[in-house]
Design goal:
It is built from 16 helices and 34 strands. It starts with 7 loop residues before the first strand and ends in an 8-residue tail after the last helix. Strands 2-3-1-4-5-9-6 form a seven-stranded mixed beta sheet, with helices on both faces. Strands 15-14-20-11-12-19 form a six-stranded antiparallel beta sheet. With about 675 residues, it is of the alpha+beta class.
Length: about 675
């Protein structure tokens, strides 16, 4: 029998690589009764890292899901990858959770992944807790780490329990106030917690000031606590030693007693057809609204769509619609996941995480529902890191082009940060990921699943073109081929727009000099030129085009003529408007041992990098923040590995486009060979 919605919890374990998320995930499943014995990451026997590539590497590549049933509660757990290379599946998993637990390695302290996942969880309005793991590691200073966490993430971060017996036990500080601890005391921690909780509500604060904690009813305190967690006014800190199970039972109890249930959380931002907020509530009797946050193309089961139910109840054999589709699919089988195992269930309530198989139309971020009049609702897209590391691929054996295309499309379905593009002009297929490692592992996955060998080479950098000034262009297209001829004449203006604005087309012709039915043809011609480039063969952006005059012929004017005239007039104008080549610029974060800072900084300076700042990290590491052109990072992973003896790590995110230096533009322009184009 399913527990009520109020007794369902969902928790995503996130954080930096090496924090112990997978081991903690395994320990929670074991202590919660879902596993008879814990697996080990080193032996490849964990529920979470079941993929052969994960076993071989000893770390998570994809998000994994499993559930615990105990004490009348159902706890959905999501283990997410820690490496920035696999940030896509990690962020996608947050869409299914009510609470994000950011796991911190007590020996390493606050790392890049800690900051990143805390920021993402806060931006999404999710309740957050900090789990300090490996508290029994030798030489750790847990009091100093708590101070660091509060300094980094705010004074709302407060211990909910405290380590004891030199990191081999924990003492509750919310429901109990006694006992010996390794630092502070349960009584002191309890006072800080209560003071923080009562601040959220004026009425609760007044009762507390008048009569002390004893005057607060259990419901009143619980309501204030839920409000604090939902609004981020309280970020509990808890302590565990996952390897030997220290604090794991206490963590599970806190999840049941304190963390928000689906009725107490901030739902994701659904929108209706007009872009207005579409309210959802955790009502088991309402229309079904669910979000697909994970796609798995299983060689044996087929396409598996994993989704979180936000409203209504999904039952086996019920009918659901995908997005604005009008043809429902039947939920023939409904699965709850346990790593790679699929456990069939009869129903899913608000807050449940389940999956359906073999539904062709299902896709990442799809909205599933059961009301045809709600077909236009969608989930506001979450922000994901832009995949900037590209590699051109082609099949190693002729005749596998179609198979390669289908295989890459299936991989792209599964990872929001993996993108496939086919560049028609170059007949080049380019895959984009977050790093060289990300792209390499996706190709390994394709080989293992679909048995396709590929050859690779560096792709063209995603340069763009734009203009630096205003100009006018003109072209008369005239052909006589014996029968009816072709005629069109177009006058237009171009002007630069703000960077990132895209393209704007306007018609300001008067008096019917160009009949209205030919204006779309002119725009089509302009767009063809936008795609093909004007000076170096790269797409043109941030340009406004205004057609203001022209001529037509009552017999010879045709759509094809105005397409050609529009394209040529646009290219004529661009050539007079100080055309520029733009290059993608990225924000780069590099962490390395302190001893390597000078060499890393010098290496970045030689790559046209602008150093934005440095931060001292715990454990003798430094973080360098820089901004530089993407083109300068083609071989950077190799250089960083060499400089830091494999200890350096980097993460990058697209920042903006900016003009290339004159020398680079000259080289790119001279290398371009535009196609011959006869009028």
């Amino acid at each position: 029998m399913s527990p009520s919605t109020e007794r369902i919890r969902s928790l995503a374990l996130a954080g930096h690589a090496g924090a112990g998320k997978t081991t903690l995930f395994e320990a929670m499943l074991h202590h919660g009764g879902a596993l008879n014995a814990m697996g080990l990451v080193e032996r490849g026997t964990t529920v979470s890292d079941a993929d052969p590539m994960e076993k071989a590497r000893g770390h998570s590549i994809d998000a994994s899901i499993a559930s615990i049933e105990r004490n009348g509660y159902r706890i959905h757990l999501l283990d997410t990858p820690g490496y920035a290379d696999f940030r896509g599946p990690a962020l996608a998993a947050l869409a299914a959770a009510d609470t994000v637990a950011v796991v911190v390695n007590a020996a390493n302290g606050i790392e890049h992944g800690t900051r990143s996942m805390m920021r993402h969880a806060k931006e999404r309005g999710l309740a957050r807790i900090l789990i300090v793991n490996r508290i029994d590691a030798e030489g750790v200073d847990l009091a100093a780490l708590v101070a660091d966490l509060r300094a980094e993430f705010g004074n709302e971060c407060l211990p909910l329990n405290l380590p004891a017996s030199n990191g081999h036990a924990v003492r509750d500080a919310f429901f109990q106030t006694g006992g010996d601890t390794d630092f502070s005391s349960p009584g002191e921690a309890h006072r800080h917690l209560i003071d923080q909780v009562v601040e959220i509500d004026d009425a609760v604060m007044e009762h507390y000031l008048d009569g002390g904690e004893s005057s607060l009813g259990a419901g009143e305190l619980r309501g204030a606590l839920e409000h604090c967690l939902r609004d981020g006014h309280l970020v509990p800190i808890v302590f565990t030693g996952a390897r030997d199970g220290t604090g794991v039972d206490e963590l599970l109890e806190l999840i049941e007693r304190i963390l928000p249930c689906p009725t107490e959380t901030n739902p994701p931002p659904f929108r209706d057809a007009g872009g207005e907020p579409f309210p959802v509530s955790a009502d088991a009797h309402g229309h079904v609204v669910a979000d697909v946050f994970k796609i798995v193309n299983d060689p044996f089961v087929g396409k598996l769509g994993v989704f979180r139910v936000w409203q209504g109840t999904v039952r086996k054999d019920s009918q659901l619609l995908v997005d604005d589709g009008r043809k429902p699919f039947k939920v023939g089988h409904l699965f709850r996941l346990k790593g790679r195992e699929h456990v069939e269930v009869d129903e899913a309530l608000p807050g449940d995480i389940v999956a359906v198989a073999k539904v062709d139309d299902i896709h990442f971020d799809a909205v599933l529902h059961d009301a045809a009049d709600e077909g236009r609702i969608h989930l506001e897209p979450a922000a994901y890191p832009a995949p900037m590391y590209g590699l051109a691929v082609e099949p190693a054996h002729k005749g596998q082009e179609q198979k390669l295309s289908q295989s890459l499309a299936r991989l792209a379905e599964e990872d929001p940060c993996f993108r496939v593009e086919h560049h028609t002009e170059l007949n080049e297929t380019v895959i984009y990921g977050l790093s060289d490692l990300h792209v390499k592992l996706m190709l390994e996955r394709m080989k293992a699943r679909y048995d396709i060998d590929v050859t690779t080479h560096p792709p063209r950098i995603a340069y763009r073109e734009t203009i630096g000034g205003h100009a006018e262009g003109h072209h008369r297209h005239k052909k006589q081929t014996g029968g009816a001829g072709q005629f069109a004449e177009v006058f237009l203006r171009v002007e630069p727009m703000e960077r990132g604005s895209g393209f704007d087309f306007r018609d300001e012709t008067k008096g019917g000099v160009i009949p209205g039915q030919f204006i779309p043809a002119i725009e089509k011609g302009v767009r063809q030129a936008l795609d093909g480039g004007a000076v170096a063969g790269y797409p043109i952006q941030d340009v406004r085009v205004t057609v203001y005059d022209g001529k037509h012929h009552p017999v010879d004017s045709k759509e094809v003529a105005f397409v050609s005239a529009g394209r040529k007039a646009f290219l004529d104008a661009v050539s007079r408007a100080r055309p520029q080549v733009l290059e993608p610029v990225v924000d780069l974060e590099v962490s390395m041992p302190d001893s390597c800072v000078g060499d890393v900084t010098g290496g970045l300076a030689s790559r046209r990098a602008q150093i934005m700042g440095t931060d001292a990290l715990r454990g003798g590491e430094t973080l360098i923040r820089a901004r530089l052109p993407l083109a300068e990072l083609v071989d950077y992973p190799t250089q960083l590995k060499s400089i830091t003896s494999g200890q350096g790590r980097y993460a990058m995110a697209f920042s903006h486009y900016e003009a290339v230096p004159p020398g680079v533009q000259k080289r790119l322009t001279e290398a371009w060979k535009p196609k011959d184009d006869d009028d």
